[in-house]
Amino acid sequence: QKKFEYILINYILPEIKSSQINSNILKSQCCYLLSFVEEEVTPGNYLEEALDSVILAIRSENDAIRVDATLAINFFIANSSVSDRFRTYIPEMVQSVLSLSSIHDIEPLTFLLDSIMQNYPSDISKFAPGLVNSLGSLIISHLSSKESEGDDRLMVISGFLRSVESIVMSMEDSGPLILEVYNNFYNVLYFIFNENKCDFFQEALDLTNGFLFSLKRIEKSMWHLFVMILNLPRDEVIIYPTEISDIIDNFVSFGGEVVLEPSILQNIYEIITVYCLPDDDNFYDEDFICGCKIMETLLLNVGEKLISLDPQRIGFFSNIVIDNIVRIEEDSVAVIYGLELLMHCFYLNPIETINILTNKGFTKRFFSTTFNKKKEFKRVHDKKICVRFLGKLLSL
């Protein structure tokens, strides 16, 4: 440690501060070395002087020096003794990252931006809408480029999308500010889904969920995104069961009876079928659980209205569970989700559900399995479902 600090103070930092033109190569290399040092060193005035010198290097007209100096900021993030001085430079450093990223596909720049956001979230949130707007413009520019398929470009775009997600998740309950961030980024999400940029569906779905979670309401423009998500190619839908089931849950929970629009419902039913009724070689417990979650949110939030409009849905939901629960290992948590879905159906229409169970020869198995697995209904949510089911059963 002491030897390194000696070299740092006597050789590396003086070279960064040097104003000699012929020292550009050494200055660049010294900054490059600093970018890999992520440990605290002994506090001292030399650190603040070094930070000031690196900022001057960031303002250089030499592109190589600008890149290496910007990446050298990692060193100062790791040293808390200069955090107050560091804060004064955050807007300039973020702008440098964005400016360089518009020219170069350098993934460490996205890591640096993430690091700044993670260590200084309150400072970043002050100008989050503008930052997200800049990131959005950069992302669309990259996505529209003919070079957007290159591995380096893909990683950079993915990194910036994750940076926006970090900003969104740090702004929960921030009211109008998060709405402004969403409005500034809507066109990026629309572009990804509308242009079928499948390499970034994961990030776009996560961001959509992040905005829904933070806003806890459905903006009018979000319905356009929802329709596009529901209409994604089915071979893409199958890849993201958790993300898509969460999105549907949020839209049903916060959007109410708007989801009962026939075309929306039909697409939701198709997605349920994709997850719960695949061929034998492609049946997975996780997919089945996500399908059950989608059916559950419909029954819990708009169940009575849904069944009054389409009474046959009780049979559709019940048969999905009965026909597939035999394909699930007995110790799988997927069994619990299936049993709970039958309880929801029973609550809404007990006679119809009992008739379906009887016709399928599943009545005894349903009650015996539910009783034998009573200790596996562990969540508060599970217990509420069971209490509601038993209340309906005893009222008959």
Automatic annotation (TrEMBL):
Q: Where in the cell is it found?
A: Cytoplasm
Q: What is the protein name given in its UniProt record?
A: Importin
GO biological-process terms attached to the record: protein import into nucleus
User: Entry's Gene3D superfamilies?
Assistant: Leucine-rich Repeat Variant (1.25.10.10)
Under InterPro entries, the record lists:
ARM-like, ARM-type_fold
Tell me which UniProt keywords the record has, alphabetically: Cytoplasm, Protein transport, Transport
Keyword presence, Cytoplasm: yes
Q: Name one GO cellular component term.
A: nuclear envelope
**So which domain of life are we looking at?**
Eukaryota
